[in-house]
């Protein structure tokens, strides 16, 4: 049996910040991708080959929408992780402080 529980609260908070940075970078990549593609327009043409390339369940348009949606979902997941890490660090810090006060010492 262990004598104590150890938590690296500051490192957990830093990890939450870095996880938020990952979220921000994913969003930046997706924003750049979307704006670059929008600026290029529809380069596949209006002939039959262009129509086959662009349309349908496996066409470029549907695939690109799914790609961006998947990227946004990934970003949302990193956002949730970041929020949870930052909240856990805050909760641990608050618990430590309140426990210290209960025993007559301040943890802050």
In short:
This protein is mainly α and 108 residues long. It has helices at residues 9-40, 48-54, 60-102. Helix 1 packs antiparallel against helix 3.
Describe the structure.
- The chain is an all-alpha fold and 108 residues long.
- The chain has one domain (9-90).
- It contains three helices and no strands.
- α1 packs antiparallel against α3 (60-102).
- The protein is rod-shaped and about 80 Å long.
- The two termini are 29 Å apart.
- This is WXG100 family type VII secretion target.
Percent range for β-strand residues: under 5%
Could you tell me the mean pLDDT? 91
Q: What Rg, in angstroms, do the CA atoms define? A: 24 Å
| Main sheet properties | none
Helix content: over 70%
Total number of beta strands: 0
The assigned structural class equals: mainly alpha
Q: Count up the domains.
A: 1
Number of helices: 3
Distance between the termini: 29 Å
Poorly predicted residue ranges: none
Silhouette: rod-shaped
Order of helices and strands: HHH
């Amino acid at each position: 049996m262990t004598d104590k529980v150890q938590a690296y609260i500051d490192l957990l908070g830093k990890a939450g910040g870095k996880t938020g940075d990952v979220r921000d970078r994913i969003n930046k990549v997706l924003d750049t991708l979307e704006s670059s593609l929008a600026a290029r327009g529809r380069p596949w043409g209006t002939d039959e080959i262009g129509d086959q390339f662009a349309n349908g369940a496996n066409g470029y348009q549907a695939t690109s929408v799914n790609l961006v949606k998947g990227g946004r979902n990934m970003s949302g997941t990193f956002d949730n992780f970041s929020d949870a890490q930052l909240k856990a660090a805050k909760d641990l810090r608050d618990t430590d402080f309140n426990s210290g006060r209960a025993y007559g010492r301040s943890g802050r």
